Amino acid sequence: MVLVAGTGMTAFNRRKDGSGFRDWASDAFEEALVAAQIGRSDIDALVVASESDYFSMQLNPASVLSDDFGLSGVSCQRAEGGGASGQVAVHAGATLILSGLARRVAVVGFEPSASYLSGAAVSELYGYSFDAWTDGMSGVSSTALYALSAKAFMARCGATHDDFAAIAVQNRTYACDNPLAHLPLEITAEDVRDSTMISDPYRRLDCSPLSDGAAALILTHPDAAPESRRACPRITGIGAGSDRVRLGDRSDPGYFAGKEIAARRAYAMAGIEHPHRQIGLAEVYDAYSGAQLQAIEALGLSEDFLAEFRSGCFAQSGRLPVNLSGGLMGQGAPVGATGVAQAVSCVRQIDGTYHSGLQLRDPPRVAIADTHGGVATVCAVTVFSGEAE
Amino acid sequence: MKYQLVLDYHLGEGALGPYLEGLSEGIALARQCRRCDRVTFPPERNCTCQSQDNLPASFGWKTLAGTATIVHRTDGLGGGYALARFDGADNLAVCRIDNPDEEGAYATLLATGEYRPAITVEISGEPFETVE
């Protein structure tokens, strides 16, 4: 078991103030450090999440951030798994503690996905996060690959674009109560349907934005947290898995099999036998609206996911609220920070300290964060729980 | 601050060399596992039978007709792309559609031109005639 003693995150948006990723990472780290009620000299390891040096123009970012944070001398490393980088870093930090190699670990994710490069340049670079030889260099976009996966998903299970549009609306609506969110929009399903077609079935409002931002956690061994933080939420399960990198090599291009593997491993570690009954909140990887529904299916959050989705089961007032932060579509998607920010949302919800309009009246006892890189190729799931009884 | 970085790569094609050479000429060169006969286009580096040691000698090359059936298709700002099954292949291929205004369930491979690594296809409403 690993305690999450402190959390911090910046706003996710497109920075226009001349600040850079080192500023955002420092802000998130300092907030988490204060929340954890420990000093920087108490930290003995730093794990940094960032997807690409192309975005930041900084190779070996852990080296500069450890120096910026005043952590010279600590063990430091960078974790990368494409879109899953943030959760991969959380897992790396938790593993350091579980293995006994560290007692207090800072996990910091960041990405300047919005303001450093043009959207067209970032979109092209994203293409190389799939199989660069058969996908990236062909010019196919991330949206087109996700769209092809969505088409297979829709053909198999009967989901429609109306379902996807409902998710796009719901996540942007939640973002309106999240002061750190990139896209708080009051929109309707008609707005989604009327937005520009990017890659059928995905329209502009079905897509997550390119965002700048950072998020941080302070993880500790249960015996290494300050007395005042020993009842804080904890990581009780981590699980990772992978799938064939190319859609065409999968038995079902519409099913996120790697995510199912990651979830099963995380649930087993956390002692979760019935995820649809035991989990009270989920932050899932909604790079596109349909991907949220594909994630709910693969994570085993329902025995009849489409019917339950349509009945409001995954809404704020439902049995298992999903993406109350707004998800990637509403809160934003600075890649390396995304998975860490999901953890921040889960921990604050369990702690009862989340944004007032989004905090669940009965804080969940168990929450999960789910991210992936590629089209659910590199998958990572983390289970968070409240204080043990 | 403005900053520009221009990179000029020279990429090693390795085991994909014959496949890429075929694409440039409009030839569908698939990889075939010598043990289970699974045929893949684009080629897999390791076979799903997982009985091979992934050495080049474990695989052979097989020329397909270059015709395919569209399984899923998406169109939009970036053009048209499809998941298609090439006749004789056991996996699906992501293909760039050269004539996205055309509707149809059939496709044939084109020489790639400037999109050398891409599987580029022309769509048709009727199956293309093939020369055996």
From TrEMBL, chain A:
Name of the protein in question: Thiolase family protein
Coiled-coil positions: none
InterPro entries in UniProt: Thiolase (IPR002155), Thiolase-like (IPR016039), Thiolase_C_2 (IPR055140), Thiolase_N (IPR020616)
Domain (Thiolase C-terminal): residue spans on this chain: 240-385
Entry-linked SUPFAM superfamilies: Thiolase-like
Species for this entry: Hoeflea poritis
Domain Thiolase N-terminal: 2-220
UniProtKB/TrEMBL annotation, chain B:
Domain of life: Bacteria
Name listed for the protein in its UniProt record: DUF35 domain-containing protein
Record organism: Hoeflea poritis
